[in-house]
Design a protein that fits this description.
Two copies of one chain form a homodimer.
Chain A lengths: L2 E6 L15 H9 L8 E6 L11 E4 L5 E4 L7 H12 L13 H5 L1 E5 L4
Parallel strand pairs in A: 1-2
Antiparallel strand pairs in A: 1-3, 3-4, 4-5
Helix pairs in contact in A: 1-2
Organism (chains A, B): Paracoccus sulfuroxidans
InterPro entries (chains A, B): DUF1636 (IPR012863), Thioredoxin-like_sf (IPR036249)
Protein name (chains A, B): Putative metal-binding protein
Chain lengths: 117, 117
């Protein structure tokens, strides 16, 4: 299954940003795309996930699957986000068993949405 | 277009709940379904939208559309949620112009997610 990891690249994560400096969302996207994506994971930048007070935010979605949104992510979390995305891609419904879920996904969930249709 | 309004019916919205008393999510669902749903809107209860610290939560989704998640909703917000859901159902992509968006949706967004695919 190919899943999509949307990454908000405009997120300021509530921090002041100096002119010419990349915002936290853009830094997170850069960290996530520094290495080849895990198998079955497509990383797509997006302008604003409307989770501004809980940014930086990412979302995992795939046809027929539950969608998950996570907040308070930083570039330091990139390896764990990618591991979590790979685990999500290995499911058929988007639901990774709790014990197998990466720690940051357990603790920083903003929302999950049932399959659309 | 038929859209889905998911309503978390297990949400406690951070409040203590007395035994035998309906939780805030269940009360919200009851208020939303007290009248016939707006045209094109399907109201579906769901157990946990994983937005527990920002509950009660609802989500609007439809095939090919942006998904929106809103938090801090209560049964008193039911009429405005239904108006917002009707406006969402009248779009082709899920994006209701800002000025036409109901106030509670402007102020209590938890996240939005691009169309899945």
């Amino acid at each position: 299954m190919t899943v999509t990891l949307h990454v908000c690249i405009t997120c300021r994560a509530g921090q002041p940003v100096l002119e010419g400096e990349a915002v936290p969302g853009a830094r997170l996207h850069a960290a996530l795309t520094a290495e080849p994506a895990p198998e079955g994971v497509r990383i797509v930048p997006v302008e604003c996930l409307s989770a501004c007070s809980n940014g930086a935010a990412v979302a995992l979605s795939a046809p027929g699957c539950w969608t998950y949104v996570y907040g308070q992510m930083s570039d330091a979390d990139a390896p764990e986000i990618l591991a979590g995305a790979a685990a999500y891609a290995a499911t058929t419904d988007g639901i990774v068993p709790w014990r197998e879920r990466v720690q940051i996904f357990r603790k920083r969930s903003l929302a999950r949405i049932p399959p659309i249709g």
